[in-house]
Design goal:
Number of strands: 3
Helix content: under 10%
Low-confidence stretches: none
Oligomer: single chain
Radius of gyration: 10 Å
Order of helices and strands: EEE
Strand content: 15-25%
Strand order of the largest sheet: 2-1-3
Largest sheet: 3 strands, antiparallel
Amino acid sequence: MKKFICELCGYIYDPEVGDPDNGIGPDTDFSELPEDWECPICGAGKIDFAEYED
């Protein structure tokens, strides 16, 4: 699964970890996140994320 980075603050969404603080479990692909999911750091929407290359 691919990682995605918030273009506003640099937070990296790692699908292997998910976003447990917001009820998103491990192994949740970015495409499976709810449309109203927001960056846990800055509140940006999914539209503000781009595919992250290690």
